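ok trying again, last paste got cut off:
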Amino acid sequence: MNTLADIHYFPREDLVHTVQQALGSGLTHAITMFAARRMGKTLFVRNDLVPAAEAWGWRACYIDLWVRRDHPEVALVEELEAAARPKGLLSKAIKPDKVTAKAAYAGSGVHAEWTKTGAQADLQGRLRTAMQNLAQANNKPVLLILDEFQTLAAGMHKDFVACFRASMLELQPKLKLFFTGSSRDALNEMFRKRGAPLFDAALSLPLPQLGDDFVANRAHIFAQITGRKVDQVELARVFERIARVPLYLNQIILHMVVGITSDPWDGLRRWQHEIGETGLREQWLRLKPIDRIILQHLATQQPESLFSTDFSAMVTDRLEEKNACNPQRVQTAVNRLVKNLVLAPKGEKGEYEIEDRALATYLASGSIPAR
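nice, full thing came through this time. structure:
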């Protein structure tokens, strides 16, 4: 089902202003923005930030690394080369055999150096050349927007990211960067932890949750489409129930439209049924028994810690196994769920949340299928 965002995008003008102030201040030339998937960060970038940057007299270059997440470093280089190439010119990229560079981030004391040969150095040389060509293509500042940048967080990309950092700092203030990511943990590995390849290299800016003004806008659109009114108070409660995910509210309203109902809760039930039948049920049944217990615990927001002895005892009781469960086994299961993008760390040690808001809502609703 399409979403209302395809037709009626809800602008985030205040957020655009914040980005302009930060990048235009001269105090920072890079911003990172974390938001869970489906919260609207990519829509913000495409519908608000790119047009705004062009209006400021900048050149905006958008690259989505998630599309080619198996080889993000190659994707980044090729997209940068394409963006830097003059229109109509099919030039062959220069591939130096050796690259040596060094750059320091002002005030941080952190340096990035590399001297490489072979295929990896070749890719790093192409990266540096492409970034230079993009920044020097004309007199305009360049805003390079890298969506799902955390795909480069794996250790195998460490030297490549160090090369990227050196070039990024060398080209400031002409080159400005806006990084987005849907994995808080992976972005922290790149930007927030001391010794990380991009430690202290960008300002962290959260994506604000949409509120009552968004609900009012959706209610107005529903009335325009159907000629019927919807109770905004109840619509706001439904929005809260689905963790304020704008995509899901758009889908619920469409269910109300096609279901000929003005009741937001009826729309919610229809939406929950659809998402359950279109993948979540199968996803749930494929999980290991201990994974299901962990997810149910988080979905129902029970207070016990995942790593407490009480939780381990409860898991042992529910699994009905001879061997008792312990916190180490729970940690192994949690690590697997994080790796598979089912769970995400919340930032505080030992605290996790369900990454997929649809799955969290589905489980919280009690619509859990039998084994």
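cool. Residues 89-118 have pLDDT under 50 and may be disordered. The beta strands are 30-34, 59-64, 99-104, 111-116, 142-147, 175-181, 203-204, 343-345, 352-354.
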